[in-house]
Amino acid sequence: MLGRGSVGKELDDKVFIIADRAKNAVHKYGRDNVINGTIGALYDEEEKLVNFQTVVETYKNLSSEDIFAYASGIEGTFEYKEAVKRIILGETYKKTYKNHFIDVVATPGGTGAIRNSLKNYLNPGEKILLPNLMWSPYKLMAEEVGGSYETYEIFDKNNEFNLAAFKIKVLELMEIQENVVIMINDPCHNPTGYSLTIKEWKDILNFLEECSKLKNIILLNDIAYMDFSQRNLKDYRELFKNLSENLLVIFLFSMSKSFTGYGLRAGAQLAISTNENIIEEFRKANKFSCRATWSNISRGAMTLLSRIVLEEKKYEELLREREGYKKLLRERADIFLKEAKEIDLEIYPYRDGFFVTIPVKNNIEKTVKKLEEKKIYTVVLAKEIRIGLCSIPKKKIYGLCKKIKECL
Ligand SMILES: Cc1ncc(COP(=O)(O)O)c(C=O)c1O
Fold first, then answer.
1. Which pLDDT belongs to residue 15?
2. What pLDDT score does 107 carry?
3. What is the pLDDT of residue 14?
4. Which of 147, 80, 98, 38 is nearest to 389 (CA)?
């Protein structure tokens, strides 16, 4: 019955199955006796979902019309687009990027931003370049739009970004493809928590500028966790100035983590270029995709974001609140990293963010079983386990490395 393109498609819901097992264990043994590292959202020290008060209060005070009416504009309201530009490029973006053209298209979550970008820049049959460790829905989305993917080893033997492996794969794709679409999930890479240094970013961009003399290079920059990074934003924002016209950078923004607005389903694509036509075609094609896929996004979510970001005092309140949770996340990470070092537990290089990832060299199924016997639940990847520091209270992080090591 299915159309030809859909035959055999089925979501591998391994992650949801483990998450369910974790929930059942909490029910059976009590919360204090279970470590649930499967969650990808921020939880407080009492293991309750964090909702930033600034966000909750602002949302509650929206009028019914602001929540229930259709939003104006398929590509997002003017205010929402302005707020997204300020978040990503800074309050003074007009001055910083004086000779640039910038546009924003509102999407349902970061997911919508990824999908729209793949739909409009990945040619059917072409491959997106992904790191070998990644947020796996990228692969599904590439497939969904008629493409596929290629991967490179993200880390070299010094546990730094593997520029050499990256370059080889980009050059290979350039040989066979019209467009080379590359996904970089930075900062706070999911699943490892790696964040590129400014030097690593410069090396990547210099190389891609060279490549763009020969082929169209589209760099998709997934910044879903950017607000949990310690990075100096001034240096970071400088990187994206005056890039060559054939290297298009599209930032993929999400309200899920930064505004604890996971279920509101709001995000955006932001494209920047020194060529007006490239931005004009970005706007037209992505707007078309919005209309053809989900129409416009939640008006309430857009109003919420712009009310906070465009009102100085409110935004400061939110930043203060978020800073507190960033600090908490840092403390959890510091406990984990210190103990991992003390007992020589190998982990992938972590710098910021929600997750840490541990390579599993032996039989991963046996390891997972042993972990679950100790009532520790993690997201199981190919040969790695991911632990969500975002949702585990500090008291449960103490001693966790030792328990994990015993199971490896
Ligand atoms: C790396 C990464 N990118 C994008 C997303 C998309 O998030 P959402 O669609 O909820 O905005 C997620 C969500 O977990 C993620 O981990």
1. 84
2. 98
3. 83
4. 38
What's the pLDDT tens digit per position in 284-330? 999 999 999 999 999 999 999 999 999 999 999 999 999 999 999 99
> Is any atom of ligand 1 closer than 6 Å to the C-beta of 185?
yes
Q: Are 79 and 179 in a shared domain?
A: yes
**Helix spans in 5-108 (H):** 14-29, 53-60, 64-68, 78-89, 93-96
User: Which atom in ligand 1 lies closest to the alpha carbon of residue 114?
Assistant: 4
Can you give the pLDDT at residue 195? 97
Task: Confirm or reject: Cβ of 258 under 6 Å from ligand 1.
Answer: no
CA of 112 to the centre of ligand 1 (A): 9
* Domain span holding position 305: 59-311
What spacing in Å lies between the alpha carbon of 254 and ligand 1's midpoint?
A: 7
Cα 28 to averaged position of ligand 1 atoms, centre (Å): 30
Q: What's the CA gap between 393 and 386, in Å, rounded?
A: 16
Instruction: Among 311, 339, 367, identify where a domain stops.
Output: 311
Give the count of domains, the chain.
2
353 CB near ligand 1 (under 6 Å): no
Q: How far is the CA of 225 from the centre of ligand 1 (A)?
A: 8
Best residue for ligand 1 mutational test, from 16, 140, 256 (most atoms within 8 Å of Cβ): 256
Whole-number pLDDT of residue 206: 98
228 C-alpha to center of ligand 1: Å? 14
Question: Which stretches of the chain drop beneath a pLDDT of 50?
Answer: none
Which CATH number goes with the domain that contains 240?
3.40.640.10
In the prediction, which pLDDT does 16 show?
87
* DSSP string for residues in 126-189: -EEEEESS--THHHHHHHHTT-EEEEE-SB-TTSSB-HHHHHHHHHHHHHH-SEEEEEEE-SS-
Q: What is the pLDDT of residue 407?
A: 95
- For residue 364, the CA-to-ligand 1 centroid distance in Å is 25
